[in-house]
């Protein structure tokens, strides 16, 4: 058997090598040559959104509530300016949970949710007796506003700033106990030139509505702030 293995080995080994070369892919495979090359237009129009992932993504909490009619106002398209149409008088709507829901909607990035949440939050705080209704909600409302101020989208951050000023104008010094939680995100964005002026105006408004005690709170988080 040893003699047979040796003698056959001389003949079989070259044959095996030839067989392997036929079955195994060559180092220079033609596959890369037929692989479609990127077009110059692809660089100008990058695919930033997965068209298949968008359909499978569940709607946000605000979008789901809006679709079910849980928000008693709708967008009315005007020729010059959009507006909200309320199904009932805003004065008769309970702030809990509508004000919280509208604050959640400030983080939306799609139309019409962006307009409805922003304008609805503003108009609800304009009703008579808004302060008495909003102050008890501050412990739950401030974390929601904080999430909007921490959002990476610039428009969401701007809506958060506007909502914060609107809330401060209504609740006044009552916001001071919760202000530190909101100032951290303002301090981070203050280094961005495009937000510096708007944040400064926001801080001045907070001082105006919050009183002298607000200055010390702001300076504890933003030492460079100059009181008005």
From TrEMBL:
Pfam families: ParcG. Residues 1-10 have a biased composition (Polar residues). This is PACRG-like. Residues 27-39 have a biased composition (Pro residues). Coiled coil: none annotated. Residues 1-49 are annotated as: Disordered. It comes from Nipponia nippon.
């Amino acid at each position: 058997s040893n003699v047979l293995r040796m003698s056959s080995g001389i003949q079989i080994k070259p044959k095996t090598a030839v067989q392997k070369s036929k079955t195994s892919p060559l180092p220079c495979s033609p596959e890369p040559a037929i692989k479609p090359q990127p077009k110059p237009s692809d660089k100008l129009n990058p695919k930033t959104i997965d068209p298949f992932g968008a359909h499978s993504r569940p709607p946000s909490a605000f979008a789901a509530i809006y679709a079910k009619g849980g928000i008693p106002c709708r967008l009315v398209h005007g020729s010059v300016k959009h507006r909200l149409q309320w199904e009932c008088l805003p004065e008769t709507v309970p702030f809990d949970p509508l004000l919280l829901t509208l604050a959640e909607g400030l983080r939306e990035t799609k139309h019409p949710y962006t307009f409805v949440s922003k304008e609805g939050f503003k108009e609800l705080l304009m009703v008579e007796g808004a302060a008495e209704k909003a102050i008890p909600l501050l412990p739950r409302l401030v974390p929601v506003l904080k999430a909007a101020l921490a959002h990476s989208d610039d428009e969401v951050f701007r809506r958060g700033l506007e909502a914060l000023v609107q809330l401060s104008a209504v609740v006044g010094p009552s916001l001071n106990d919760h202000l530190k939680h909101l100032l951290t995100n303002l301090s981070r964005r203050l280094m961005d030139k495009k937000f510096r002026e708007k944040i400064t105006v926001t801080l001045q408004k907070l001082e105006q509505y919050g009183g002298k005690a607000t200055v010390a709170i702001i300076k504890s988080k933003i030492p460079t702030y100059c009181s008005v």
